[in-house]
Amino acid sequence: MSGGTNSTEMTATPATRVLGVSAVAATALMILLGLVISPADVVQGEAVRMLYLHVPSIWIAYGSFVLTSFSSLLFLARSKRRPDGGRHYDRLAGSAAEIGVLFTAITLITGMLWGKVTWGTYWQWDARLTTTVLLFVTYLGYLALRRLPVDPMVRGRRAAVMALISFINVPIVHYSVDWWRTLHQKASLSVGRRPEITGEMYWTLLYSVLTVTIIAAWLTVHRYRVIRLEELRDEETLEQLISSRRNEETADTAEPGDTI
Amino acid sequence: MLAEVLLLARKDLRIEWRAKVALGQVAPLTLLIVVIFAFALDANAPLLELGAGGLYWVAILYGGTLLTQRSFELETEDGNFDGFRMSSMKVHSLFLGKALALFVQICLLEIVLGPAILLFYDVQVANWALLVTAGVAGTMAFSVCGVLWGVMAAGLRVRTTLLPLLLVPVLAPVLLAGSRAFETALGVRADAGWSWTSLMFVISAVHTVVGLGAFGFLLEES
Amino acid sequence: MSAVVEFEDVVAVTGSFPVLTGVDVSVNEGEIVLVRGENGAGKTSFLRACAGLLRVSAGSARVLGFDMRVDRRTPRRYIGLLGHENNLYRDLWAKEHVEFRAAAGGGPKSDAEAALAKVGFPSTLWSVPISALSAGQRRKVAIASVIATRPRLWLLDEPHAALDAESRTNLNSVLREAASAGATVVFASHESALSKELSSRVITLQGGRVAGDSGAS
Fold this sequence. Notes:
heterotrimer, A: mainly alpha, 0% strand, B: mainly alpha, 84% helix
């Protein structure tokens, strides 16, 4: 993926077409499993089906932000040594953050709906909810910074620093909010704890995680390529501008009175 | 390096002394916020007393953001950002000097705001040592983060709107910790005020380290 | 004589516009170089690239021996830049400002008074806020701020602008003195008579490239 694509007309390649088709097929099966085949929960009732989207989304959201931070770190570390400025790391950071923000929004919406059904309220000031909403706003700010019309390397550096600080800030935020109050039920898929979700529900959840991961990977690849195409377009425009500026010079050099 | 830090901080504070932006404009504004909170909460005395600690930090968050804005407005007006970058001072001195000046200015704000809250909201201080230490810890965290995000937004045309969007989520834990620590210091909550204070010191330390490492990346405009 | 500025096919971009499209130039120590050209020819960008404020995106650029694509911060302490704007803190007094710039440039504060005297800035205005000064006086404070940092490379963008006739001649002698002491001066200007008299070499920029160079070998 980091090599980019040579195509200048579309962002699909045979490999990503396969990825896209499998994402669609997997989603169809996920709907079937999640909404029809798997049973309702004894305690949570039908609301448990929301978790098949909620849990994978939060995994993708956090995973994307980890990817953003990791690529940002590589961008800052490598940008000076590479002739292209290591911009593919910047592109990866940007596209992952967009997917992360999207899935954070899905997490928040499904979580609130689930909370309304289960807790009787849309919002609880618990550690994970509060951390997630702050994370959402933080990365909205990150995307706002990325959209600014400034020199791409400057924007890349500033965005990379912001991504790193935001990442370092996640545990601080979580720790402080957790300390403040905790109400949330325990993490659903963690190892070493007796799973509260068993049997068909457990496999459905695991399968949903896989499906949503495929969807997210597919979206990230395409966003990456779109950003790459935008950069190619900018580079082409720049080359045209450079050559037209040079031509303007040759037309004028012959002017008399210019020699001193 | 200390000499450079002090040189830059003294320059900022001298400008403040001449222009009186922090004391003459931002401090009165935070006083207004104190009054406005009383309007919003219907001048409910028990509620104001309970919320005094948190309202204090919200007012500081607002005033401090304005001061951060101002601090980098100085460095960018009249093409000054070039002068800032052309100086032979070390990058670390630039970061720490700006942070020190911002720290002093926010402290000035707090010296005005603190007594006002005590008077208007009729709160008693139960633990002065905690109140002052927590105030210093929160202000340190604020000034370090402020300089880091201030330089990030400096020179951008949309800086006035971008800066708060970037700054406030990062300062959210400081606001939380500061409010809880002040509630303990004001005797409305028997909570771990000192632990919250230590958390703010940790946050300032983390951001100082990050800032020293990252400031150089944020300085260039092309 | 060693080369102070060595540019080979330097390309620089601001936003998405190529301001420098392949500049080849070499400036030696002690030279006084006038950079001329029409509006938008790249004069200011050339000076900013020399100062390391503008990133060189292609070609090779060395200033005072430093590779500007590797380290463009270190050479700045030896460079004095007088920009199009004056880079002044408006709320400071004139003398305070020059003192700050002198100290920030690593020199002694005491250089400030001498520098202000050199540009003919009256001592009665030393303790006046910069915001209260006239355009010409502000320009003098800005020039004094550059002098006070004792640069080895002077980069001046329209240094004569806003100055009166006497101050212009005075500035020229200050620059000549600096050059004879081993400094290098590169300046952009429209004021042809005064500039030609001052300069030992004229470079003409057009479309972001060098279109004429009176000192080219």
